[in-house]
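Supplementary Methods S3. Input chains for the assembly prediction are listed below.
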Amino acid sequence: DADVTQTPRNRITKTGKRIMLECSQTKGHDRMYWYRQDPGLGLRLIYYSFDVKDINKGEISDGYSVSRQAQAKFSLSLESAIPNQTALYFCATSDPGQGATYFGEGSWLTVV
Amino acid sequence: AQSVTQLDSQVPVFEEAPVELRCNYSSSVSVYLFWYVQYPNQGLQLLLKYLSGSTLVKGINGFEAEFNKSQTSFHLRKPSVHISDTAEYFCAVSVGNTGFQKLVFGTGTRLLVSP
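Predicted structure tokens for the full assembly:
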């Protein structure tokens, strides 16, 4: 099984709809992240969480919200999707002691 | 704030030729540096990382990188590339030691290896 699992892997949704991307990890790390990848822009941080009670905005949090349901679970929501949120989304977890970050396979989201 | 610059958006190279992918960072404090690779339609895989110690870091698939503090660079090199190295490569920096670790990525360099 993958260390970081994202669902769904692909989703097409309509403008204005609510969509949730889910992430679970089996590494046992406290820290989890959501990134967004756009062509030519690399990966940009949306939200991050250091533990279940800690949530922090990243550089592009507008239009997104997150929920840390448990140490292993971190979900990303788009309350009212818009076309410029079409992107590849990555969930990750990190072990700062090892300088290691583990990424999921990514979730392709298309907003039409 | 820290930032990462990858000046080359695309690097075409012939098979078995050497390649260097450039990465420069800006930070006034100690940094951890990383290179990730993304093969077509896949997630990110760690190639190598610099945390401390030797400035020459060897990674997977024959890649290596050298941390140059004075030039704030962490260029990725491979002496002989293969077709299978065709992918997008991301340089990333994480600042801090005991503090949180969030990665700041460059915009990526697409390596195109042709026969």
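The longest strand of chain A covers residues 42-51. Chain A is about 0% helix and 60% strand.
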